[in-house]
Amino acid sequence: QSAVSSQVRRTFLDFFAQRGHEVVASAPLVPQNDPTLMFVNAGMVQFKDVFTGKEKRPYTRAASSQKCIRISGKHNDLENVGVTARHQTFFEMLGNFSFGDYFKEEAIVYAWELLTKVYGVPASRLIVTVYNGEGGFPADEEAAAIWRKVTGFGDDRIQRLGLADNFWTMGDTGPCGPCSEIHFFHGNEPDLSRFGEEPRIDGSGWTEIWNNVFMQYDRAEKDGPVTPLPAASVDTGMGLERIASVLQGVTSNYDTDLLRGLVDRAAQLSGKRYTGSTGADDVSMRVIADHARTTAFLIAEGVMPEKQKREYVLRRVMRRAIRHGHRLGIEKPFLHEVALDVVRLMGDVYPELNERRELIARVTEDEEVRFRATLKRGMKILEERFGAMQSTDARVLPAEAAADLYTTYGFPLDLTQVICAEQKFEVDVAGAEAIIRGAEETDGPINPEAALDPAFREARGRLQEPVTFTGYDAEEGDSEVVA
Ligand code: ATP
Ligand code: MG
Ligand code: MG
Ligand code: MG
């Protein structure tokens, strides 16, 4: 059976559809039902109210492949991107859900059958984990017993972990319960003694691929006691890129057909070779590949690189990618080219990309042109500063200087920090922030960069309307971009 990612996604959804699950389209990345969340970061988000019973659906089982971004709040993987083999800011989460329907037994049987029978993953390369009771909830002996029965594993392959890894909560209140993870060993001989170690940078070692959450308790008050939920539920999540790497026989998400074409594009644009190493150039290429996806998907939903919260996160991600391109020696705007590859690669599965192709290219290029100009100005000023600081042995860039770069030249504070850190200088960030806040209080919000093209603003309202779901069937485009 083919392991191309479109097939891996399709197989997952078909497997659960055949077992009575409604296949539900990915919700938008911008949460529709949760003002506390910046971006959807798990498959369960669109079902939150169904789990709590606030909302009723005509089905009690569902499956989806959900667009996720983990770049803020409790789940922030930004600093991991490019550095670990398994994290992106943007990824797809495959999930099956039971709303008070089946519970642990079926969930475990399904997961095991799909992995080992349908996908053909060797059991010898898998370890599962269950909750050990740390923190006072009952240890999940029930799940351990089911795993033992279903897999034949002994205790060495049914690991017991604590609250941080194996107990899930929706928030300070609401549904919660133990979870059970499945880990895969990348590399030559599966080595049980290495479980719990961070996988090596090439990806070898034990990597979590699938998390099964068993919602069985409810908590009415923060830190209060839990009571059993009237109907226990299941929420699972498996990273598409992670299972694709397993099935494609590669150790890194960035070597799967979902990402490798984008990495190769970054290599081609920079005239350098990608070697899959920990070297700075390879890290930069992976960062560009990931951030181009986040960029394309967010702009497709009408999020523009601007100064409000969510918009600013996008801007920072884009600028981070551009900075990495800059350090690879790419001299002209390039991020829009990688973003267009994202459209080609995934537009059949996510039609919003095709529909907003022109806009994605235009907004991305525009942002890069503007940022490169800012970068040039800011770098020049900083270099003069560094020269002066070196002659007096000063190690800290004064608050006024950092604030002035921002208020007068639009040079973001975080970027000033990154560049200073590269040169082993510090920045008086707190001081600079205080000055900027003060200036904003008297003069209103500072927007030193030219306003966005009014056409983008006008387009935004229209863009935030939902896109028609055409199904996950499309396949053709998925392997098109192998630059
Ligand atoms: P990890 O410990 O590797 O950071 P996690 O425990 O934070 O993963 P979960 O919150 O359990 O991840 O999410 C469910 C699944 O989603 C994970 O098992 C993994 O397959 C996938 N996943 C989570 N974060 C990422 C990411 N940043 N990039 C790609 N896949 C991810
Ligand atoms: Mg994580
Ligand atoms: Mg984990
Ligand atoms: Mg997990």
Automatic annotation (TrEMBL):
<keyword id="KW-0030">Aminoacyl-tRNA synthetase</keyword>
<feature type="domain" description="Alanyl-transfer RNA synthetases family profile">
    <location>
        <begin position="3"/>
        <end position="483"/>
    </location>
</feature>
<comment type="similarity">
    <text>Belongs to the class-II aminoacyl-tRNA synthetase family.</text>
</comment>
<keyword id="KW-0862">Zinc</keyword>
<dbReference type="GO" id="GO:0006419">
    <property type="term" value="P:alanyl-tRNA aminoacylation"/>
</dbReference>
<keyword id="KW-0648">Protein biosynthesis</keyword>
<dbReference type="GO" id="GO:0002161">
    <property type="term" value="F:aminoacyl-tRNA deacylase activity"/>
</dbReference>
<keyword id="KW-0436">Ligase</keyword>
<comment type="function">
    <text>Catalyzes the attachment of alanine to tRNA(Ala) in a two-step reaction: alanine is first activated by ATP to form Ala-AMP and then transferred to the acceptor end of tRNA(Ala). Also edits incorrectly charged Ser-tRNA(Ala) and Gly-tRNA(Ala) via its editing domain.</text>
</comment>
<keyword id="KW-0963">Cytoplasm</keyword>
<keyword id="KW-0694">RNA-binding</keyword>
<keyword id="KW-0067">ATP-binding</keyword>
<dbReference type="GO" id="GO:0005829">
    <property type="term" value="C:cytosol"/>
</dbReference>
<protein>
    <recommendedName>
        <fullName>Alanine--tRNA ligase</fullName>
        <ecNumber>6.1.1.7</ecNumber>
    </recommendedName>
</protein>
<dbReference type="GO" id="GO:0008270">
    <property type="term" value="F:zinc ion binding"/>
</dbReference>
<keyword id="KW-0479">Metal-binding</keyword>
<dbReference type="GO" id="GO:0004813">
    <property type="term" value="F:alanine-tRNA ligase activity"/>
</dbReference>
<dbReference type="GO" id="GO:0045892">
    <property type="term" value="P:negative regulation of DNA-templated transcription"/>
</dbReference>
<keyword id="KW-0820">tRNA-binding</keyword>
<keyword id="KW-0547">Nucleotide-binding</keyword>
<dbReference type="GO" id="GO:0000049">
    <property type="term" value="F:tRNA binding"/>
</dbReference>
<dbReference type="GO" id="GO:0005524">
    <property type="term" value="F:ATP binding"/>
</dbReference>
